Amino acid sequence: MAAEIIDGKAFAASVREKVGAQVATLVQDHGLTPGLAVVLLGDDPASQVYVRNKGKQTREVGMHSVEHRLPESTSEEDLLKLIDALNNDPAIHGILVQLPLPEHLNSDLVINAIDPAKDVDGFHISNVGLLGTGQKSMVPCTPLGCLMMLRDYHGSLSGLNAVVVGRSNIVGKPMAQLLLGDSCTVTIAHSRTKDLPSVVRGADIVIAAVGRPQMIPGAWIKPGATVIDVGINRIPKEDGKTRLVGDVEFDSAVEVAGAITPVPGGVGPMTIACLLANTLTACCRANGLPEPE
Ligand code: NDP
């Protein structure tokens, strides 16, 4: 029997709707409009699309949206000055610096210059530490979106075996922390993992965050497992155009899994929805208001 398709697009729309309603209440009851600033350096086409989508969706939920598009050659000093100004701008509650940064810039330094309370990407070292120790933090958007879909599908995740393939700071590691926080038994696999197929086969939950098109076939998946495909890979089509695929070979995996997220339409839309939710949370915290649920 084919797997249930987890509709990230529809889920994300419901999250945005809820955020929009909460923003409207904040505006009405407290005269507060949550503000998100996105900083983009250079003209990478994929990043341009992400930033445009983020700005559009931010405005659609009634938030204040600011975009800073800077040349690729921007100096570290100038970027840090901008971040400092945004840190001190009371109209801005969330700051996102679009990664990857040009090579002449030190990403760690730049990210750690963001006020942790405004770090809606959750990459600041303080937020990483808070998440790792189970304290209230800003949670990275992509893993948060994955967790929301998993909780929605499973209810409790307690005791399930989860394998996260990929150990990046932005997806793999925070994903593993979140699953551990929900009492999964967590394995983190990476490029040096021995016998990856058998590691994946032991998982009730597979999170694929590798960046290699369709590398995980259905034959690796335990029957009935839940598969969350974070990968976004562009591959050529026969007609010379391209299409997006995940890190999981969808057509074979859908025959074995119990539930699976598609690419596109799975994790991607949830990431931006969670960015909006984090910005709302940051605004509430900054103003001493109860956090949105
Ligand atoms: P990174 O390149 O930072 O990390 C990739 C990870 O995959 C590394 O830990 C690497 O291992 C591991 N890996 C590489 N090859 C293999 C292999 N053959 N077997 C097992 N593990 C392997 O990528 P990101 O975490 O930034 O992103 C992963 C994917 O998710 C990409 O496709 C990206 O586009 C997508 N993405 C999607 C988002 C969304 O909103 N849907 C948001 C962010 C990312 P090692 O550490 O040993 O090198």
From TrEMBL:
NADP(+) binds at residues 166-168, 232. Pathway: One-carbon metabolism; tetrahydrofolate interconversion. InterPro entries: Aminoacid_DH-like_N_sf, NAD(P)-bd_dom_sf, THF_DH/CycHdrlase, THF_DH/CycHdrlase_cat_dom, THF_DH/CycHdrlase_CS, THF_DH/CycHdrlase_NAD-bd_dom. It comes from the Bacteria. One of its GO terms (biological process) is L-histidine biosynthetic process. Keywords: Amino-acid biosynthesis, Histidine biosynthesis, Hydrolase, Methionine biosynthesis, Multifunctional enzyme, NADP, One-carbon metabolism, Oxidoreductase, Purine biosynthesis. HAMAP family: THF_DHG_CYH. This is Bifunctional protein FolD. It comes from Aliiruegeria haliotis. The gene is folD.
